[in-house]
Write a structure and sequence with these properties.
Blueprint lengths: L1 E3 L3 E9 L4 E10 L2 E3 L11 E9 L2 E9 L2
Antiparallel strand pairs: 1-4, 2-3, 2-5, 5-6
Length: 68
Amino acid sequence: EFTLSKKSKVSLQILDEYGRIVETLINQSMAEGKHSVLFDKKNLSSGIYYYCLVADDRRKTNKMIITK
């Protein structure tokens, strides 16, 4: 989940441990307000991944671990 304070161009990508993009979940302009994204991890193997959320000039990157 994330909240936008104004209409923004949003990009949400999943990266592997080497920084390569493995999936783009969002790449579009979105309205202000609270948003949520469903992520289907079935196509990814177990390991360390990162998600990178970019909205206008703000960027948030966090680590996630997928286990199967």
